[in-house]
Amino acid sequence: MTNIKVDHIIETDVLVVGGGGAAARAALSAAQEGANVRIAVKAEWLKGGSTATAFSELLAIAAAIGHQEERDHPEIHYEDTLDAGRGFIDPELVWTLASEVPNRIQDLIDIGLNFDKQENGKLVQGMSDFATYPRTCRVNGVTARHILVALSKEIKKHDVPIDENIMVFKLITDNQQNISGALGIHRETKEITLYHTPSVILACGGAQHLYKYAVGTPDMTGNGYAMAYELGIPLINMEFIQIGPAAIKPSMTLLSGPVWKTKPILTNSKGENILEKHVPEGVEVDEVYNEKVFPFTISTAAYYLDTSIQKELELNPTPNGGVWGIMPPGSEEIVDKKIPKTNGVLKSKGIDVFNDPFEVALVAQCMNGGALIETPDGATNVTGLFIAGETAGGLRGPDRPGGNSLAEGQVFGHRTGTAAAKHAQHTENSENMMEKSTSAIEQLRDWVKDSKGERDLDKAILLLKENMYRNSLIIRNEERLNAALANIQELERAFRNGEFYIDHDSIFKAIDFKHMLTVAKSIVLSAQARTESRSCHYREDYPEKDDANWIKSIYVTEENGEMEVHTRQWPPHRKSEVKL
Prior knowledge:
By secondary structure, this protein is α/β, with parallel strands linked by helices. It has 17 helices and 22 strands.
């Protein structure tokens, strides 16, 4: 008989799930509203997720504050962002982002964040993709980490408890489908905590680690998406994933746009120059380098760089499944000028980029899709459930302008924290929470009881990641996607039939794996449905953009136990712009 049970019950007004920039901002704002707040984070605080570990030469937060260019203002930021995703994203959410991020920048300054400044005291602002004017603000090259640390210091002042190594895995609702609690499991002890709360904020990042190679930390497996999906919340735009090149050994280092201006030489295991091999006549290799930014897109000649890498991963891979990269002779000056941070990181890992070939592969960096939020407060169609950051869907479509990711976390972290606190103040905790949580615990017990086989969960997780990397990376077609779906369905069937060995010690891993299967399926089904190529979504069998049929979002929902695919059309402008 298994000893899976509720080991702890904790009451709180607001439970924040996650440990990145959006979660930290949400927790702080909820606490500032006077709520009793608790944070549950899957990793150790300040050590997991994207915000804590993000790195690139261009990493910054976008805000139209006009310090670098006085003509920039929120309306232009709004238009730039909407132009990158019009027809795929909610204009009201975009306006909220653009109009409020200047205030959130000021909040960060007020709590002591020291942004890079010009001689006149104004903030340094840089250009990013899809921007009309320079608007990205940065802090000493590691902007995301500095934001998180600054927020963490403020959270500590409010005595907000932080439960580390807790994976929240099930949201509990009452008979009216209002949030009444959540269940979390400890990574090491496997003890289960029942959080009794009327307000939950999911800000637990994306699902990059459904892929063999990804940035961030391995705990980013899409738990927030899966939990929202289980409650009937649509997962939208899931086919749009930011994927691009990175140095993969001895550690993962993203190779952003400036890296490619140094024109590193890429070769396969046979020593062949992969760009000379795959770039067709009529396209200059220099054009490929000059156009290359992160992530992959079909929109420019840079398309050939990423697709050449994937082709060689399958034809002539290096030992760890990549291609070789090395800086060209005589490039020392441009490397020092263009990519001092990247060069410094690689050097700290023992790589001399001029003399030591380093392995380069494609890595997943950011999910543009997510669990659909219905209002600028991050509310969903489940009362008491709020979503922010990368977990939220509706703000990112085929493209995401540079600097918007950190901006989203601050704007919607603040809004969800404030809204969740106010909701808790006017909501009584449900009385039937224990009854609903018991059924979730019974399901875990059944997994252990019905475990008849010896299949290994670790091997299954690796198989899933390799399947997604092989069949749903940047080169997609019906054959690949069918193979991806067949693999997912086989793993689902095996899980359902008790073919995996699951005991008390592996229940954490089993829950995570189940969530990964749900999210992987949403990506593959969405990619199958979109029979066109657009930005980061490339269908080899449908290579053209099809504006006549596909300027709309794809979303999936659970209906009668099955994942169903639907489409949604968005208005081209926010409501206030529509002339009556």
